Structure formats: C-alpha cells, structure tokens
Amino acid sequence: MSQSFDGIDFSDYLQKAVEDALKNRGNVNVLIAGKTGVGKSTLINSIFQGNLATVGQGRPVTTNTTEITKEGIPLSIFDTRGLEIAKFDETFAGLKEFVKERSREKDHTKHLHVAWLCITEDSHRLEEGEIMLAKILDQYMPVIGVITKSRSDDTGFRNHIREELPFLRNVIMVRAIKEVIEGGYELPPKGLKELVELTIEVIPDSVRNAFTAAQKVSLRTKINRSHVVVGTAAATAIGIGAAPIPFSDALGLVPTQVSMLAGISAVFGLQVTSAFLGTLLSGAIAGSGGTVGGKILVANMLKLIPGAGTVVGGMISGSTAGALTALFGEAYIAALCTLLSNNPDAQPTAQQISNAFKIELQRKRFSLGSD
Predict the structure, then answer these.
(1) Three-class secondary structure of residue 121 per DSSP
(2) CA 110, CA 102: separation in Å to the nearest integer?
(3) Residue 48 forms beta bridges with which residues?
(4) Model pLDDT for residues 280-310, shown as the tens digit of each residue
(5) Are the C-beta atoms of 54 and 45 separated by less than 8 Å?
(6) What is the pTM of this model?
(7) Phi and psi at residue 366, to the nearest 5°
(8) pLDDT digits (tens, 9 = 90+) for 174-214
(9) Do residues 1 and 278 make contact, with C-beta atoms less than 8 angstroms apart?
(10) What is the DSSP letter of 252?
(11) Alpha-carbon distance 137 to 80, whole Å?
C-alpha cells in the first residue's frame, strides 16, 4: 500500500532500504572438502539455516564438486566429494582448476572466501592427498581444519594436523549433532560456535554479514554484527544533525532509520521485503493509526531521549539525532533476541517481530501513536 508524506511516497524508502540492505549483505562462498562419510552434510545442516544440504538446490561446477544454494540464504556451499584414492587425481585436478578460475574473477562475490577441510576423527591419520589439497587451497583462500565426529577431548590428533599443516588458520574439533554412545551416555554437539566465530574472523569483511545471516548457531555473532549496523546509522544521523536542524527538516533522518532496521534484519537472516518493513514500522511506530508517516516516526523516536520532546517545532542537534537512532536500533536488536534466543533457526512473522519491537520500545518509555 502506497503511503506518503510531504509529497514523498514512503514506500520508496522501504524499497530502497531493502535493496541496499541485501546488496550490502552480499553472498558468501564456502568450500567444504573431505572424503565421503566425514559428515559434511550433517555439518552443513547443523550450522546453516534452511536444512541446506538436504533441500538446497545443487548445481555441478566440476565432476565432483557441487554448488549448493537455497533462495533467501546468502550463501553458496561448494561441496567437494571423491577425495578417496580411487578418484583423487580426477577430483584434485578439477578442483585445482576451479579454484584458480574463481580467484581470477574480477567480481569478488564469485571468489571462494574460505575452505573447511574436513577430516574425521575416526581416521586418526592425515592422508597425503589431504595435505596436497590443503596446500593448494591455502594459496587462494583461508583454510580451516575441521575434525568431524569428535567424540573425545584428546587433542593429540588436532595437534598432529597443526604440526603437519601449520598454515591452517586453526583446527576445530567438531561434533555436529548429539550422539548417544555405549551405556546411553549422551555427547552434546560441540565446536560449532567456535567454527562459526573463527570463520567470521578470517573471511573478508565484505561478506561477514552474509555468513552471519546464513549461520544459525551463534546468536551473539548476529548481535555483534548488528551493533556495527547501528553504529554506522548513528554516525550518519549525527552527521545529518551536525548543524542543528528544524524538526520540520528532521524527515531527512527517516531513510537512515529505515535502512538501519533493514540492515539489522538482513544480518539476522530474516526475509527482508518492503511489506515486512511496512508491517514492522506501522505496528511498532504508527500505533493506532496503522500507517507510517515521517513526522510520526521522527516525533515518536524523539521521545526516547529525555527532554527531547520539547524540541518538536524547534531544533534537533546531531547528538540527539545519533542518540535516538542508536536507542531505536538497540530496541530492535533486543526484540529479535527475545524471539530467537531459544530457537535461532526460527523465522518469526513480521507481525510477531513488530509486536516484540513495540514492547521493547515501550520498555524505553517510548510513547506511541502521537504525531
């Protein structure tokens, strides 16, 4: 539904915010290599949203490498199979050429951003082929060693891999899913958050938001990346208000506020659309009127700042603009945390998010529904 204020179609702000958020988030490319049976599919499904390895779309890119994607998840998984001795030469040659071609791409979104070299703990040995592959991959991207199906706390095998492959960014011992061993003793998942956090450290900053959105095991990572979005928006708002501006001109803050919400939503891996943002804002900000207008948005946000209500009709300073933007963004992050803390893989509806956002704003004594 088209909404306007001062002759400006508010839906234009929503659409631009969505486009910018998705463009800035980008897409991350992860190569996962390892022999058949090491548990790559289980690892993928345990870390990323959408049961990707099971229901994602697969597209062959070499004889034994498949690109797995799923609409709405900003991630491409390149799953390399056939590292067994019988197929190694064929797989190695094809993969080596594929990696080289990707590294030559002028478009950085086509680069391979990180490799996970998966080696099952059951083997207790590092094969020559795995060493060769790791050395090739290291020439083009950061490589992380992943010991899968880890059932013990013995770090001997991990230390052996680190000695043989000292260029690896690290070696993480992972148990992707809960296991029940002899006697009914349960082994909980382990190492998943550590793998996610290390990966975010080693990949380019330009794709960190994409990886953060795609993974589901570390809510803290989503929060940390969202704080960056809020900080950037607050700095922009301070710049807008560097010279005190009349309230009537404060509508210039609205695109910054809307873009910030879209950016946070994208980092959290939500399905960001104009309709989603419209529902979010109309429910949490416009109050009983059920519509979004720039003056309503700015006036209600100002009430987050003690004493700021008195400037309506007067002037808004840069510090006030930055402070209300930061508080607004942090309230939204808190709302998403409330909804996702018990189930990071959930996809709450726009209305559920809007309701939670409204509650967080009320906790900050945010007065709703006035113009």
Answers:
(1) coil
(2) 6
(3) 215
(4) 887 776 553 444 555 556 665 655 555 555 5
(5) yes
(6) 0.87
(7) -85, 115
(8) 999 988 777 778 889 999 999 999 999 999 999 999 999 99
(9) yes
(10) G
(11) 12
